[in-house]
Amino acid sequence: MSASMLSHVLFFCLLLSVQAQNCVFNEIIRHTSHLLEETSLSCPCRETDVSPCSCLPIAEPGHELACFVEGTEYMLKNISSNTLITRLNKSFQAQLDRKLCESLAREDHCRYMTKGNVEEFLKKILGSYQKINK
User: Fold this and answer.
1) Which residues form the signal peptide (predicted)?
2) Which end of the chain is more exposed for a tag (fewer CB within 10 A), N or C?
3) In CATH, what number does 22-133 get?
């Protein structure tokens, strides 16, 4: 392998590793904070009926992005077709599809131990991205 080819391979590997951690967190933090301010949904979740108090997945580490996609899709279909929720869903889906933000997407399926209401779900999103922002 020539030195020129080796330098191209190393550059490509460096580019991929930088891209893998490219989490667009400022926009997500801003949108999630705004949704938390406007929501008064702190009621207990109910798995049996569709309501703003429905249960959303509170992700295990490494499964956050997949659960954020699943949760925001559920919110769009069953709770509200809010523009901010649509933007969040698209951001999460893009990060998951492009394998960005590795710490939140070691696997591409949603795995969770508990479920929570909308407020708890949004706080999980906010906390996850605030950790990355540090």
Assistant:
1) 1-20
2) C
3) 1.20.1250
